[in-house]
Structures are given as structure tokens and as C-alpha cells.
Amino acid sequence: MSNPQQLRYSKEHEWLSDAEDGVRTVGITEFAANALGDVVYAQLPAVGDTVTAGEACGELESTKSVSDLYSPVNGEVVAANQDVVDDPALVNSDPFEGGWLFKVRVADEPEDLMSADEYTAFTAG
Amino acid sequence: MSSNAPRHTALDALHRSLGATMTDFAGWDMPLRYGSERDEHVAVRTKAGLFDLSHMGEITVTGPGAAALLNHALVGNIATVGTGRARYTMICQEDGGILDDLIVYRLAEHEYMVVANASNAQVVLDALTERAAGFDAEVRDDRDAYALIAVQGPESPGILKAVTDADLDGLKYYAGLPGTVAGVPALIARTGYTGEDGFELFVAPADAEKVWQALTDAGTPAGLVPCGLSCRDTLRLEAGMPLYGHELTTSLTPFDAGLGRVVKFEKDGDFVGRAALEAAASRAEQNPPRVLVGLIAEGRRVPRAGYPVVAGGQVIGEVTSGAPSPTLGKPIAMAYVDAAHAAPGTAGVGVDIRGSHEPYEVVALPFYKRQK
């Protein structure tokens, strides 16, 4: 499994894209998707919701468990991926592309986001 | 036994080479899944799946008094099990609480194999040993003597036939016979925990890899895949089969679990729990306890063990097992609910899923029954 170089990563196993007009895309990593198993239900934040770094903003449910979804940054949600709501398995099959979860207009972001190499080391330990 | 060092089965290296996600289960490091647990589930329903169940606890009971001992120690009438046949039964406490559910195989006139859940194997071994006092029988811990490999699913008879000369057509459901599989000795049983036709093969741990490999080679063209405990749980849930620690506990008698039929009061002699179970049976008849029912979600959120079942704003029961059902395409659960709300089709029943009441349909178990 390889973590795309252009993304940054949180300790809660979310990835964060580069900003386009101040908007970043958020998803969960392949490592997280593998740990969850088949995702069967995704509750995503709604457009207009304010999200806070490190706080739960939705949930991902797999065969064996339910996990909170955290936002890696502070900001306002400007899009949620309806394809994932309709077909949650996209989170497993394409976590870094088609399985993105929401887009957020970033107000503020924490200092401790990791690079791809740092995150790879983080998950190896 | 150390509690923090998990035990490994004879197939451990093989699971790792297959890329299994492992999980701790009752002190054993077991395969949870190899790839997608949904795909594994579907393979067992439509083709075949291969399981390592070596964590299960085998206890051998031998001697002229073996049948009498088991009739005294367990709630079933074990003396009437024919040689080569098996029976689903339970072991209870003196107060009627369920210690474990078991399968007992009669291997010979004076030899039985009791198969306990991994989490209860020591408890069952200790209880049988204690209850053996005064009987002309020996209780032997055979947990390390066997690896257990299951091949389950509609293609499993054809797959197993390719690697054994045993008469599988003559082997009925809940029967077991000694034979040879892939050139090594095995006890071949037509039992399982998936709701499908299938076999459980008890073999020496040293032979486990050989048997696994032979079944993989014979089965892969027919669609057999390795399967982990995750899909085993959803398979048994769809089939309405109870799991100890969820539907069965020491605080329930078999009558509370809707399984009073396993208790055989008519058998000869006293047995552990008889008086308490007679009281439980008459209590259940006069004042029905909570009933184990099936629940099918109308929405997509999944009920989990321990979630309250609600109706009219009141808690009327509790979920014991829940999962997304690959066969139904909806979340399902087993739950104990008050008798007044237990009839299939009862309106207004929901599950409290982390604070929101989601509507559920009450159905009779099982959710899934295979076409024979």
C-alpha cells in the first residue's frame, strides 16, 4: 500500500488534499479502510456544517464495527460525496480518489499533519 | 495460561502468507478475513469457503461409564446418540444457567468427543472433570491433539470428494466418521455453523497444512476461498444460530434462550441443573420471558450487541448480535424482546442506534434457510 505524496495525513488516518481556492478534500487512508473492513454505511457531514479538527463529524460503519469520522481541519463543509453514501464500498476500493468523503473550506489547520513518508512510518510502528 | 500471549494454530504461517487480517479471539490469534468479508460470505452461500477453526476446544470422554457421565453432566440425552452421529447440546450450571453450547460426537460405543467454544473450553473441561467423580469414565483434554478445518458451502461435497475416499453420500447432517483426507487420518463430520451444507475435519495439527492445501487445490476451480471469523459470524447470524456470549450466557437458561428443546427431562437419572431447569420450564410456560427474535432494518444503520430495542418510547429488549446481512442486503440483528412485542410483524419496533430510534421489522428466525 502506498500513500500518495501530494496528500497530508492525520493521526486519525484521514488524508487531506492540496487546497484549490481554499478548499481541501478529505478522505480516509487505505490503511484505515483495510483496518475497518468492508464499509457498509457512511454518514457524512452536511454541506454548510462547521467541522473542527479532531472532532467527530460523521461515522463509517463496517461489518464488524462503527467508527467516528474526524475532520483533520477546522472549516466549513462545501461538498459531501454522494457516491460514497450510495456505495460505501468505494471507501475500500478507491480510498484516495473516488472514495473521498467531503470537501472543506479551511479556516484553520493543526500543525501536526504528516507528510506521506511520516504517515507511512506512523502506520508501520 | 498467560492471558497476554495469544495462541497460534497450526495454520498460522499459512494465514500470514495469504495476507490475512488477524484478530484476537478467546486468546487465539485467528484470521478475521483474508480480503473482503462480504465476498467470503457470498462464496460460502454460493460456492465454498475454507475455515481454520482450530481454536475450538476438543474434550474426549472414554470408558464404560462415558454415556452415563455425559447424561449426568449435560442437559441432552447423550446415551441415545448412535455411534457415528453427533448432537447439539448444552452444559448448564446447577442453577440452570448456560455454561456453553456443545456438539457431542459419539466416535465409538465408549468414546465421545465434546467440542466446546474456545472461550469456554477450560470451563467445560473443568466442569466435566468435576462431574466425572463416581463414573467409570475418563475426561481427556484434547485441545492440542486436533486442528479443525471446515469446508462449507454448496460445492463442499464435490470438493471434499476429490481428496477423500470416504462415503460422503452416506454421511448425513450431524454425523461423523473416521476416514482419510489428503492421505492423512481425519474425523470427517457433516456439521457447521454457516447454514450451508459442509464438513468439519478434525486432523492432527502436523497434518493441517497438508489438508488445507489439498482442499485449496481441489476447491479453487469450484470457487472456494479462505474465510475468516468475520464472515463466519454473519453466516451464523443469517442462519439464526446462537453464539455463546451473545445469545447464550450463564444468566440465561436454555428455556430463556428459546432452546428448551435441548433439555431432556425424560432421560434416566439426575443431571446437573435438573431442578432449576424444571422450574425454568414451568416459569417460561406461565409467564413467557423475553423472546429471541430477528430484526430487519428499514434503514442502513447497523444494530450492535447491547443496543436497546424500543417501542413507544420504552425499552422492550436488547440486541444480542447485529451485522449488515450480505444475503438480505440490509442490516439484521438478533434480539431478546418482551413477549408482547415478539410476534413477527409487530408494528412500531425500533432499535436505539446511538441515540436515534431506527425502525425495524420483527421477523421469525432464521433470516436465511438454504434450499435443499
From TrEMBL, chain A:
Binds 1 lipoyl cofactor covalently. GO terms for cellular component: cytosol; glycine cleavage complex. The glycine cleavage system is composed of four proteins: P, T, L and H. Keywords: Lipoyl. Residues 23-105 form the Lipoyl-binding domain. InterPro entries: 2-oxoA_DH_lipoyl-BS, Biotin_lipoyl, GCV_H, GCV_H/Fam206, GCV_H_sub, Single_hybrid_motif. GO terms for biological process: glycine decarboxylation via glycine cleavage system; protein lipoylation. The modification N6-lipoyllysine is found at K64. Its cofactor is (R)-lipoate. The keyword Acyltransferase does not apply. It comes from Streptomyces populi. The lineage of its organism: Bacteria, Bacillati, Actinomycetota, Actinomycetes, Kitasatosporales. SUPFAM superfamilies: Single hybrid motif. Belongs to the GcvH family. PANTHER family: GLYCINE CLEAVAGE SYSTEM H PROTEIN, GLYCINE CLEAVAGE SYSTEM H PROTEIN-RELATED. Transmembrane segments: none annotated. This is Glycine cleavage system H protein. Pfam families: GCV_H (PF01597). The glycine cleavage system catalyzes the degradation of glycine. The H protein shuttles the methylamine group of glycine from the P protein to the T protein.
TrEMBL record, chain B:
Belongs to the GcvT family. The gene is gcvT. GO terms for biological process: glycine decarboxylation via glycine cleavage system. The glycine cleavage system is composed of four proteins: P, T, L and H. It holds the Pfam family GCV_T. Gene3D superfamilies: Aminomethyltransferase beta-barrel domains (2.40.30.110), Aminomethyltransferase fragment (4.10.1250.10), Probable tRNA modification gtpase trme, domain 1 (3.30.1360.120). Residues 290-369 form the Aminomethyltransferase C-terminal domain. Keywords: Aminotransferase, Transferase. Substrate binds at E200. The keyword Transferase applies. It catalyses: N(6)-[(R)-S(8)-aminomethyldihydrolipoyl]-L-lysyl-[protein] + (6S)-5,6,7,8-tetrahydrofolate = N(6)-[(R)-dihydrolipoyl]-L-lysyl-[protein] + (6R)-5,10-methylene-5,6,7,8-tetrahydrofolate + NH4(+). Residues 13-267 form the GCVT N-terminal domain. PANTHER family: AMINOMETHYLTRANSFERASE, AMINOMETHYLTRANSFERASE, MITOCHONDRIAL. One of its GO terms (cellular component) is cytosol. GO terms for molecular function: aminomethyltransferase activity; transaminase activity. The glycine cleavage system catalyzes the degradation of glycine. This is Aminomethyltransferase. It comes from the Bacteria. Its EC number is 2.1.2.10. It is an enzyme of class 2 (transferase).
